[in-house]
């Protein structure tokens, strides 16, 4: 059986080589395509090796027809002629046809042969001469010397007569090719667009570890543990529910309320109103939101709600986005609800830095101190938020460590904005906007002072807090706080001026943000590969060990599925010389990657009783997996 399979591989290889040889030998019997298209070939006397005699060609075509149909040639469906100069435009400067945009956005090629063959798969014991897997045969053709047929006439299509199968080796790496057009195609040197090879894998992004290969652990292959743990905790918090809760079952379209703060307190920040925050799920779109309830608020003027609506349009990475505002009696009283985006497991800046909790602990030592770069990062983020808010004709008004959320490492967002616009709506007698905006700058200074000195009452004890602050931070930071704090005295101070003053720090923060972005992107690229392999493993497990098809010849141990089962053993159930299980994740990943790529590498699969032995290539295994999976789909109905 193994020999049959081996011969089969040899035969198909030979079959794949022969069209190339024949194509070259028979050039003089093949009608030149320039003659077909233009009636004449301008290279006829300049060495074009093809036939320019229509009659001769016609008389001979009958005889060679059957052959040409068998081999792959210019009439093969996937061939697209290259009109092109390398940049994709023809010499006239007009856009070239190339692959049409429609074709370029087409789904990746899926060989029909596999699907149609799968239902009547033949057991390998009967000399199963399965045609070689279709991907390489049908689709991937490039002209061998496309560059030789340089264009001299803008109306003439260069015709390249020699074709050979696309060899993945020397082809340009699609991931490095800057001419990539869309996600699925890239422009090769020859002007052809070829589908990206989805199975290719290369670690992208920076790699800073100095570990030797033997020191690398399996964790190197996956998203870092702490990041995964953080994300998992956030997901768990998002999905958390409160069974038997006394809370209303829903508020408008929001249900499954879970309180996010537990201590009842009336905050001076919201004009003496008590505020509560709940996590809730929207029945409209299934997303999770934070609902801030202002208890006992009675709406006396419709315009008040409208004044808060402007916040719905305010988008800044450092502001918690307002989604909806309404009043509701679901809690048995009249309450105002401000719905915002939900940031799982976030804490307030006051909670995060234990501001005002010094009664529990000794006065801040330099060890507890918030590092200066972190403070600068906060300053840059708050400045960015205020710039957007002020230029939208609004003022934050609520700017306090107890209302700024820490949503990630050194990532903060202003929260509670817009609430005062509604509950302190004053109509015509409102405080001028410019004054509110200057107050924002003063509050900004107090936030930084509070965080830096660890005191909650920096506003009432400015001098004392400043003294502590000076002990830990450099003059540049001290001056920044003083500049902001004096905004009330100097009517000209604006957030725009402030932003120009801290431009150096903004560059530093921007650079750090780009580094974070790069790191996360690089982590993401690893997970993309994992997702691919998980899908492949799922396919393998769908196929293997199906007792319900035990007596079905197509699924029997003698059939094609048999070597897939042995492959499963080869990947996962290897034992060493002492019959101890080999647990080698590297081996599993390598095998699965090769399977996904369908490489020509052959492996030896031996049955557990050591009575059967197969020599089979990954290419054939891949074909077997696809065929079995498609068969399974047909039997099981649509994929869920
Ligand atoms: N959008 C949100 N997403 C996730 N959690 C939030 C959100 N808004 C608030 N929280 C959480 O809800 C809790 C209460 O928030 P709140 O703004 O009421 O702060 P607080 O410390 O209770 O302030 P106060 O003393 O003024 O009531 C905080 O722990 C905060 O992290």
Describe this structure in words.
With 640 residues, the chain is of the alpha+beta class. The chain folds into 3 domains: 20-64 and 107-166, no CATH class; 235-501, Transferase(Phosphotransferase) domain 1 (Transferase(Phosphotransferase), domain 1), CATH 1.10.510.10; 535-635, Orthogonal Bundle (Helix Hairpins). Helix content is 39%, strand content 11%. It contains 19 helices and 15 strands. It has a 6-stranded antiparallel sheet, with helices on one face. Helix 5 crosses helix 19 and helix 18 crosses helix 19 (618-636). It is elongated. The model is unreliable at 1-24 and 57-187 (pLDDT under 50). Residues 260-261, 265, 267, 269, 275, 277, 290, 320, 340-343, 346-348, 351, 402-403, 405, 415-416 line the site of adenosine-5'-triphosphate. Adenosine-5'-triphosphate binds next to strand 7, strand 10 and strand 11.
Q: Which helices and strands occur, and which strands form pairs?
A:
Layout: H1 2-25, H2 33-38, H3 54-70, H4 101-104, H5 112-118, H6 134-139, E1 141-143, E2 163-165, E3 185-187, E4 193-195, H7 225-239, E5 250-251, E6 254-259, E7 275-282, E8 288-294, H8 302-309, E9 322-328, E10 335-341, E11 347-348, H9 349-352, H10 372-391, E12 404-408, E13 411-414, H11 419-423, H12 433-453, H13 462-472, H14 475-485, H15 495-501, H16 503-543, H17 560-572, H18 585-597, E14 602-606, E15 613-617, H19 618-636
Helix pairs in contact: 5-19, 10-12, 10-15, 12-13, 12-14, 16-19, 17-19, 18-19
